[in-house]
Design goal:
single chain, mainly alpha, Arc Repressor Mutant, subunit A
């Protein structure tokens, strides 16, 4: 067991330097050591041309390089995801503005506009909307909301034919 402590100390010293040079942590070095020892024990090479220290450190080094490649790919994916998310947020904000303008163009006397306003902006339930507008049931309120959305879409199609023709 004493030999293992010496091996661990020597290897961890080397691995900590190697890992910290590429922005890794001491925990990363310890994990690499553990994985390298596990690989050694599971493969049990018949003979080693290098010392056990060299074998463990070289296996750990390869594992670390593999991890760095994985992290780099993950970082690139995260960067591209953030860019796509920013583009999506920009599109969403533009589309929201267009829909709001179309909503504002609906006549004030149009009951559907009032129902949409109550549902989306005041966040009332269908039951509350039915009660407020004197409708017989929640289903009637849903039907009125559906017709209002349909009319809003028609208005949007007239204002933005290029968006609806492209879809």
């Amino acid at each position: 067991m004493n030999n293992f402590k010496i091996l661990r100390t020597k290897c961890l010293s080397y691995l900590r330097k190697m890992v910290s040079a590429s922005n890794g942590t001491a925990e990363d070095a310890e994990e690499l050591f553990s994985e390298a020892v596990f690989i050694y024990l599971s493969k049990k090479p018949a003979y080693l041309t290098a010392s056990l220290h060299t074998y463990i450190c070289s296996v750990a080094r390869r594992l670390w390089l593999k991890e760095l490649r994985r992290r780099k790919i993950a970082a690139q994916n995260a960067d591209s995801f953030l860019k796509e998310q920013q583009d999506f947020n920009l599109r969403t904000a533009e589309e929201e503005e267009i829909v709001l303008r179309a909503f504002e163009n609906l006549p004030e006397s149009f009951r559907g506009k009032q129902i949409l306003n109550a549902f989306y902006f005041q966040q009332l339930s269908m039951k509350e909307i039915a009660h407020r507008f004197g409708l017989p049931s929640e289903n009637a309120a849903k039907k009125q909301k559906f017709h209002a959305i349909h009319q809003l879409r028609s208005l949007l199609r007239q204002q933005l034919p290029e968006v609806f023709d492209a879809a």
